[in-house]
Design brief:
Shape: globular
Helix content: 25-40%
Number of helices: 10
Structural class: alpha/beta
Number of domains: 1
Mean pLDDT: 92
Low-confidence stretches: 1-20
Order of helices and strands: EEHEHHEHEEEEHEEHEHHHEH
Largest sheet: 9 strands, mixed
Number of strands: 12
Radius of gyration: 18 Å
Strand content: 15-25%
């Protein structure tokens, strides 16, 4: 694997500048989100809550919206290694419609032309296939079948499958990127952004370290990362914007930038003019307990966690707006 040089540039205030001090020119029609594990849950929540901001989502091993029903016990039960109890998809769809009508989620009609890509490794025993399939079933209520793709035949565990990067495909260890001969990041981005060219073999653009406003109140690290491809740095080219949400034990507080470096997102973004945003969750050993730095999909930040007013949701939505305006 070629080494990826990541020089860190500290910016203050909201992350708006490209690597040369110019704000990237973001095409608002090409803003998408993806996540793995707890990040997949959050990507799904963000997509439904703020579908006016996103044109598509990639879900890597995550459960359906409101699966946890504001309960950690429920999250650890029916929403993870559950292989016996079918999830109440119709009830969850009804909740989405109800909350959208109340203004707590975006208008579900926004999803009608979105693209959704879902991945579940066939050796994943952390999130059961039954749980992940329920996410696809929820999406099927709002997204046309031709815009919905499921990949479930890759022999990967509960990590991001990669091609030529990461630890062995039969291992489970940090940064939870496994070399399984399958490029999840590239395939995902290729579906959300049709017509991509081959990934760059080298990435020399700086990975910027930025301050994320509101992070502290949302149990997030104040430091986030922004990747601006060389073609986007001048602001002359209209570029896509992709929000990447790590999984549990993958934040910079735990693995540094290893997940960002090894995932494969950077190479595809560099060659195709896609700005990448990498927010980070703060781990906590005191209330609210979150020792592995997971995104909130069960309610540790408050009862509004899955709605537009959820603390983490608001911070991410505001960041996306600041980058794309």
């Amino acid at each position: 694997m070629r080494s990826v040089f990541l020089s860190i540039l500290l910016l203050t205030g909201t992350a708006l500048a490209g690597s040369h001090g110019t704000k990237p020119n973001i095409d608002p029609e090409r803003v998408t989100v993806s996540g793995i594990s707890s990040g997949a849950h959050m990507a799904h929540q963000m997509h439904l809550a703020y579908s006016e901001l996103f044109s598509g989502a990639g879900i890597v091993s995550g459960g359906p919206y409101f699966c946890a029903d504001n309960s950690l016990l429920t999250a650890m039960g029916r929403c993870m290694d559950n292989t016996d109890e079918p999830l109440p998809v119709d009830e969850l769809v009804a909740v989405i419609r109800e909350q959208a009508a109340a203004g707590n989620l975006a208008d579900t009609n926004n999803l009608a032309d979105d693209r959704v890509w879902l991945f579940h490794g066939s050796k994943d025993v952390t999130i059961a296939r039954l749980v992940h399939d329920a996410t696809a079933d929820v999406y099927a209520a709002f997204v046309p079948p031709e815009n919905l793709v499921e990949v479930n035949d890759i022999p990967a565990g509960h990590f991001l499958a990669a091609d030529g990067r990461g630890h062995g495909c039969d291992e489970m260890k940090p940064p939870f990127v496994g070399d399984c001969g399958y490029d999840t990041a590239g395939t995902l981005l290729g579906y959300l952004y049709p017509g991509l060219v081959d990934p760059a073999t080298e990435v020399s653009t700086e990975l910027q370290e930025v301050t994320l406003p509101g992070a502290d109140n949302a149990e997030l690290l104040e430091t986030a990362y922004l990747f601006v491809p060389a073609a986007c740095a001048s602001g002359e080219q209209a570029c896509g914007l992709h929000l990447v949400l790590h999984g549990c034990a993958q934040s910079a507080e735990v693995v540094g930038t290893a997940f960002i470096e090894q995932s494969g997102y950077l190479q595809w973004a560099e060659s195709n003019g896609i700005v990448l945003a990498f927010p980070q969750v703060e781990k906590s050993m005191v209330a609210p307990m979150n020792p592995h730095g997971c995104w909130d999909w069960w309610g540790y930040t408050g009862d509004e966690y899955a709605y537009r007013d959820g603390e983490q949701m608001k911070v991410l939505a505001d960041w996306i707006r600041s980058l794309s305006n």
